[in-house]
Amino acid sequence: MDIQRLLIAGVCALALTLSACGGGDDDPSDGSATSGDTSGTGGTGGTGDNGGTGDNGGTGGTGSSTATHSYYSVDFSDFLVARTVDIDHESNAGTVTLGNDTVSYTSDDDGNVTASGFTLTGDLQEADGGMLVCKDLSSTTTVGRHLILPANAEAVTDLNVLKGQSFLLIEDCDIGGRFDFQADGSLVWTDMIDDENEPETYPPSVVTALFSASGQEWEDGAVDHLKLYREPDSGVLIVVSFTAENDGADRSLGVAVPPSLVD
Questions:
Q1: How far is Cα 217 from Cα 227, in angstroms, rounded to an integer?
Q2: Cα–Cα distance for residue pair 30/174, rounded to 1 Å
Q3: 53: which DSSP letter?
Q4: For the chain, which ranges sit under pLDDT 50?
């Protein structure tokens, strides 16, 4: 099995202005990544001072609507390394650069976003949301290219939290399969694209390899990596999946999230 293209949060909308993406930390623990030598942190902007004028106290400053998110992209040969992008969650139109793609978008009053040439899966109305950005290759074919994490996402290293948890795999902005982590540390994978495939069970050693720095190499030479994150406010676990084939020339990524987050 090639466990491919896993990770984010529901299916809905986004209101964002994205800017500034650069090389980053391999595994940011707070949902942020570094750009060059400068660390970027997720979260919301601070509030202004409450200084008054004259005899009547003035109003305080307004908080920033921009948050720094980590994101992954297949456009980079080191696609296991997170980059950062700033998102203005109050903007309803703009242009964003992710990897080699430039995405021009508009958002309606309900937060529903359209971007010509792209399909968007997730929710970025708030800083605690994330999104899988897929490129439309034709009227019927989309390919997942970029994955934006919640601004406050935290890396999780204790794989015991996965025991008993289930996730739906979202690849190419569509549901591709189901992951059921068992109490004994093994993993059951169910392919939901090919109905003829039976569920496959993988031992704890394979699960450990998938989440390791070297990943899990399969007989066909493909290598899969998984990374685990948690959105701290909701406690939702997010699994990011990376697949490299043909010595890394062909790369794919995706997201696996709890079934309750998928419409």
A1: 16
A2: 27
A3: B
A4: 1-23, 29-62
- Give tens-digit pLDDT for 110-126: 777 788 999 988 887 88
Model pTM score: 0.77
**DSSP strands (E only) in the chain:** 18-19, 34-35, 38-39, 66-73, 83-88, 93-98, 101-107, 113-115, 118-123, 130-136, 142-148, 154-155, 166-171, 174-181, 187-191, 200-202, 216-217, 223-231, 236-245, 250-257
> Which residues are CB-neighbours of 248 under 8 A, at least 6 positions away?
77
Residues with Cβ within 8 Å of 176's Cβ and at least 6 positions away in sequence, in order, are 4, 5, 169, 170, 191, 192, 193, 254
Q: What is the DSSP letter of 84?
A: E
In sequence order, what are the residues at sequence separation of 6 or more whose Cβ sits closer than 8 angstroms to the Cβ of residue 22? 35, 36, 83, 84
How far, in Å, CA of 163 to CA of 114, rounded?
37
